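Researcher: Let's do a round of design. I'm pasting the C-alpha cells now; please hold your answer until I've finished.
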C-alpha cells in the first residue's frame, strides 16, 4: 500500500490501475468509481490497518474494461510490474507505463475507425484565443487562432475528446463554450510563449516554426505547445509520426456558425434516430476516407480550381465504371494505414498489425498503376504521389510469418529461413517427437518391456511409465519418481538432459523473436512519412470514389461553380429527405434563383407542413455539397461560390443557459446581421415567431429591410407565415414573393410542395391540428375564433399601418451619397484602433462632432 500511495500521489487526478499478480486492482475512491462505471464488485480490505475499498479485474480483460473507463471521461494510469516477480525476493518494482485519457489513446477498442480522436488545447490571449488539435493515433497536428466565435466553430467541427484549459480560465471556458467537453485543467505556467516555442522546436528539431507557416500565430503556438507538453506528461514520448504542424486556414473555407452546423444536421441531430447529411453521403470504404470526409464536410472549399479538380475526377470515374470498381475493390483491402504507421512510431504495433500494414501497401500497388495510366490529370498526380514502399514490403515478407499472432507468446512471429539460429532452436524444440519415439524404441528393445510410455507433467517433467506387470524388468539406472495404482513412473539421465535442452530452446526462441521484431519496428520508422502520404492520398481517392457512387445511385449532377454572385438551382432536391420517402413516392423538386440585382430576397409564405423549411435547407445543402467537391441532387446547378452560410431554422430553448426561445432566436439572428458579406447565403425560417404576432411581424419586417438595404446585398431565403410581409415586395425592388402551393378540396388540403411565384393567404394551422388528431371540439372552437379575429383585425388595416410607417422613415443608414458621411466614413475606416490611445480617440470623436455641427449650421 505504501508503494501504491507513492505512485498515486504522482497521478492524483487519474484513476490508477495497479497490477498485482494476475489482476489490475483499484483502491479507495478509484475503486468506488471503477465499480460504478464497470459494474464490477466493490469489496473491502484492511490493508495496513486501514479499511480500504477495493475493486479489480483480471489483467487479460484490460482491453474490455479500459475503453469503458476512458469513454466515461476518466484519465487512467496503468501501473505495471517492471520486473519478473520470480527474480526478486522483495516487493516487485512497479511504475506507470501509460496514461490513457479520452484524448490520448492508441487502443483500437477506444478509437472509432471513422472518427478522429482529438486532444485539444485552448489558450485565452488578451484579444484572441489560440487552439490546437492533435490526434496521436493518426499523427495529425493542427492549429489556429481567432475570436470566440471562430474557436467555438472549430470545437463544434472537430469535436475533440478532451480539451486542455489553464486553471485560471476554468470558469471562462465553460461560460463561453458550455460543458459538453471532457476538460482537463493545467497549471498556468504551461501556457507561456517561450516554453511552448521551446517544446515545439525541440520536438520538430527546427530553429523556428517559419517552415510550417504558423510562426505568426502566437496564441496558436502556445496551444500547440500545451498539447505536446501534455503528451509527454502522459508517458507518450515517441512521437516521430507527428511530423508537421498545419494551420487551419479559415479563410479558405466556407464560414458556418455553430447554429448553421446544428440546424442543417450535418453530423449530429438532436432528434433520436434522425438521419444526418453525413449518413447519406458517406460511401467511403476505408477508415482514412471516413475521417477525411468529415473534415471536408466541416471545411467546404471556396477555391473554384480545387473544387473543380474534385468534380473532374468524379465525372471521369462516372464514365469509367470498371476503373471505379477496381479502385473500390483495392481500397477494401487497405487497412487503417494512418493508425498502423502511428503504432510503428510509438512502438505499440504487434506482429499481426505489421502483416496488415504489408498487405495494405500491397493493395496500393494496383491503385498506383491504374491511376498512373488514367487520362484524368488529377488521378495521374495522385498516382505519382503514392509510394509503393517496395523495400518495406519485401523486408516484412522476408522476416515476419504470414500468420503472425497478435501476442508473441501465442505463436510463430519470425518467418522460417530468416534467422539460422532461430531455425536451429525451432528444430530442437519441435523435432522432439521423433527423438522421443526413437528413445522409446531403444528402451523397449533393451528392456523387453512392450508397453513402455513416455509422457510429461508439470510436477517433474518428462517420465517413463511402466505397468506393474513389467515392474521386475526395470533397469537399476532408472530413478523412480511416482507410484500409481497399476503403474510406476521413472526418470533417466537422458530424459532430464533432453528436457533442459527443450525448455532452454523455447525461452531462447521467445527472446530472439522479441529482439528481431523490435529491430524491425525501429527499422520501419524510416517509412513513417511515405506511408502517411499514402494514407492521405488513399483517403482522398476513397472520398472521391464515394462521391461518384453517391452521384450514380441518386442521380446527382455536376454543379457549375463560377465567380459570379448568382445562385440558380433547377429542380433541386433535399439529399436526406429524398432518401427517407416511402417507396414509390417521388420527391417534389424545386427551382431557386437568387442574385444581388433583381431577386436578392425571396419571401416564402405557405402553410405549416407545406415544405418551406425543406426548400431552405436543401438550398444550403446543395451549395455545401457542391463546394465540398461532390455532385448535387438537382437537374442543374449554377453556383457563384459562397463564402458564408447562415441559417436560422426553428427555435429551440436554451433553458440550461437561462435563455428563452426568443432570446436564442434573436442572438442567432443578430450574429447573422453583424457578419454579412457579398457572397453570404442567408436562410431565415419563421423569424419572430417566439413573440407576440405584432412584435414578430415588426421584427421580421425590420430584419428583411436591413438585409435589403445593407451594401452586401446578401442572398436570402426567408420563410414565414406572416402573410403581411408579402407587402414588402411592392416597396422593395429586390424582394420577391413565392409560396409553397396547396390545393384546397372540400374539407381537406393537399400539400403540393411546389414553389410558385406570388404570396399566399391562408395558414391552414387548424387543418394541421386536425391531421394530428386534436379533439373535435378544439378544432371547432378554433375555427370560430379565427373567423372572429379575421373580421376585427383585417390584414389590410395592418398592412396600411405598416406602409404608413414605411413612408415616415426609410431605414436609410446607408445613404452614402452625402459627401459629409463619405468623409466621416473615410476617417473611421483609416483609423488603426490597435494603436489608438484613449485620449486620441476622444479627440477624434470631437473632430467628427465638430464636422457634423458645422454642417448642421450650414444647412439650417
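Researcher: That's everything. Go ahead.
Model: Designed sequence:
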Amino acid at each position: 500500500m505504501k508503494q501504491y500511495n507513492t505512485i498515486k500521489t504522482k497521478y492524483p487526478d487519474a484513476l490508477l490501475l495497479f497490477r498485482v499478480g494476475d489482476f489490475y486492482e483499484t483502491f479507495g475512491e478509484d475503486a468506488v468509481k471503477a465499480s460504478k462505471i464497470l459494474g464490477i464488485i466493490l469489496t473491502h480490505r484492511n490493508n495496513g490497518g486501514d479499511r480500504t475499498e477495493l475493486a479489480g479485474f483480471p489483467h487479460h480483460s484490460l482491453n474490455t474494461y479500459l475503453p469503458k473507463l476512458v469513454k466515461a471521461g476518466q484519465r487512467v494510469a496503468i501501473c505495471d510490474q517492471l520486473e519478473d516477480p520470480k527474480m526478486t525476493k522483495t516487493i516487485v518494482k512497479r511504475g506507470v507505463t501509460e496514461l490513457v485519457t479520452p484524448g490520448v489513446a492508441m487502443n483500437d477498442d477506444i478509437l472509432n475507425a471513422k472518427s478522429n480522436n482529438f486532444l485539444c488545447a485552448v489558450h485565452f490571449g488578451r484579444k484572441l484565443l489560440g487552439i490546437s488539435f492533435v490526434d496521436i493515433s493518426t499523427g495529425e497536428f493542427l492549429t489556429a487562432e481567432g475570436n470566440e466565435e471562430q474557436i467555438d466553430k472549430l470545437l463544434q467541427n472537430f469535436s475533440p475528446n478532451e480539451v486542455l484549459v489553464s486553471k485560471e480560465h476554468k470558469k471562462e471556458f465553460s461560460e463561453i463554450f458550455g460543458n459538453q467537453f471532457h476538460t482537463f485543467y493545467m497549471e498556468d505556467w504551461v501556457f507561456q510563449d517561450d516554453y511552448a516555442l521551446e517544446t515545439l522546436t525541440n520536438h520538430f528539431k527546427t530553429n523556428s516554426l517559419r517552415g510550417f507557416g504558423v510562426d505568426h500565430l502566437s496564441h496558436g503556438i502556445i496551444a500547440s505547445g500545451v498539447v505536446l507538453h501534455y503528451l509527454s506528461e502522459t508517458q507518450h514520448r515517441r512521437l516521430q509520426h507527428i511530423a508537421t504542424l498545419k494551420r487551419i486556414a479559415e479563410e479558405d473555407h466556407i464560414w458556418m456558425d455553430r447554429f448553421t452546423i446544428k440546424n442543417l444536421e450535418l453530423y449530429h441531430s438532436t432528434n433520436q434516430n434522425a438521419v444526418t447529411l453525413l449518413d447519406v453521403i458517406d460511401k467511403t470504404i476505408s477508415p482514412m476516407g471516413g475521417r477525411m470526409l468529415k473534415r471536408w464536410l466541416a471545411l467546404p472549399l471556396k477555391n473554384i480550381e480545387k473544387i473543380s479538380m474534385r468534380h473532374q475526377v468524379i465525372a471521369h470515374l462516372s464514365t469509367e465504371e470498371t476503373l471505379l470498381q477496381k479502385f473500390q475493390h483495392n481500397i477494401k483491402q487497405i487497412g487503417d494505414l494512418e493508425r498502423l504507421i502511428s503504432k510503428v512510431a510509438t512502438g505499440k504495433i504487434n506482429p499481426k498489425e505489421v502483416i496488415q500494414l504489408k498487405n495494405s501497401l500491397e493493395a496500393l500497388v494496383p491503385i498506383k498503376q491504374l491511376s498512373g495510366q488514367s487520362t484524368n490529370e488529377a488521378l495521374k498526380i495522385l498516382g505519382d504521389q503514392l509510394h509503393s514502399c517496395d523495400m518495406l514490403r519485401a523486408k516484412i515478407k522476408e522476416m515476419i510469418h504470414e500468420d503472425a499472432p497478435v501476442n508473441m507468446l501465442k505463436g510463430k512471429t519470425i518467418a522460417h529461413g530468416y534467422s539460422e539460429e532461430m531455425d536451429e532452436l525451432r528444430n530442437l524444440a519441435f523435432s522432439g517427437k521423433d527423438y522421443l519415439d526413437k528413445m522409446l524404441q531403444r528402451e523397449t528393445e533393451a528392456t523387453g518391456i512392450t508397453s513402455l510410455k513416455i509422457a510429461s507433467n508439470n510436477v517433474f517433467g518428462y517420465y517413463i511409465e511402466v505397468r506393474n506387470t513389467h515392474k521386475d524388468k526395470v533397469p537399476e539406472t532408472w530413478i523412480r519418481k511416482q507410484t500409481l495404482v497399476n503403474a510406476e513412473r521413472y526418470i533417466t539421465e537422458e530424459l532430464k538432459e533432453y528436457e533442459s535442452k527443450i525448455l532452454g530452446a523455447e525461452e531462447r526462441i521467445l527472446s530472439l523473436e522479441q529482439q528481431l521484431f523490435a529491430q524491425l519496428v525501429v527499422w520501419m520508422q524510416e517509412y513513417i512519412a511515405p506511408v502517411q502520404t499514402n494514407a492521405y492520398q488513399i483517403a482522398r481517392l476513397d472520398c472521391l470514389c464515394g462521391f461518384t457512387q453517391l452521384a450514380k445511385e441518386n442521380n446527382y449532377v455536376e454543379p457549375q461553380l463560377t465567380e459570379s454572385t448568382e445562385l440558380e438551382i433547377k429542380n433541386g432536391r433535399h439529399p436526406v429527405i429524398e432518401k427517407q420517402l416511402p417507396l414509390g413516392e417521388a420527391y417534389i423538386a424545386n427551382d431557386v434563383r437568387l442574385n444581388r440585382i433583381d431577386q436578392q430576397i425571396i419571401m416564402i409564405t405557405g402553410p405549416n407542413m407545406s415544405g418551406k423549411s425543406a426548400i431552405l435547407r436543401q438550398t444550403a445543402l446543395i451549395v455545401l455539397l457542391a463546394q465540398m467537391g461532390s455532385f448535387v441532387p438537382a437537374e442543374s446547378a449554377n453556383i457563384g461560390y459562397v463564402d458564408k452560410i447562415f441559417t436560422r431554422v426553428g427555435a429551440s430553448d436554451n433553458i440550461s443557459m437561462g435563455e428563452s426561445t426568443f432570446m436564442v432566436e434573436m442572438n442567432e439572428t443578430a450574429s447573422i446581421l453583424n457578419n454579412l458579406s457579398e457572397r453570404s447565403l442567408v436562410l431565415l425560417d419563421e423569424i419572430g415567431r417566439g413573440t407576440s404576432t405584432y412584435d414578430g411581424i415588426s421584427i421580421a419586417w425590420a430584419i428583411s429591410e436591413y438585409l435589403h438595404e445593407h451594401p452586401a446585398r446578401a442572398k436570402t431565403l426567408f420563410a414565414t407565415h406572416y402573410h403581411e410581409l408579402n407587402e414588402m415586395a411592392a416597396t422593395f425592388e429586390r424582394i420577391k414573393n413565392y409560396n409553397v402551393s396547396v390545393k384546397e378540396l372540400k374539407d381537406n388540403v393537399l400539400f403540393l410542395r411546389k414553389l410558385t411565384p406570388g404570396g399566399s393567404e391562408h395558414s391552414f394551422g387548424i387543418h394541421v391540428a386536425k391531421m394530428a388528431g386534436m379533439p373535435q371540439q378544439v378544432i371547432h372552437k378554433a375555427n370560430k375564433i379565427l373567423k372572429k379575429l379575421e373580421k376585427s383585425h383585417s390584414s389590410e388595416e395592418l398592412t396600411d399601418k405598416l406602409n404608413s410607417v414605411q413612408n415616415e422613415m426609410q431605414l436609410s443608414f446607408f445613404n452614402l451619397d452625402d459627401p459629409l458621411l463619405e468623409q466621416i466614413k473615410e476617417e473611421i475606416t483609416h483609423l488603426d484602433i490597435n494603436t489608438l490611445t484613449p485620449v486620441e480617440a476622444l479627440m477624434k470623436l470631437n473632430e467628427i462632432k465638430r464636422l457634423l455641427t458645422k454642417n448642421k449650421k450650414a444647412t439650417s
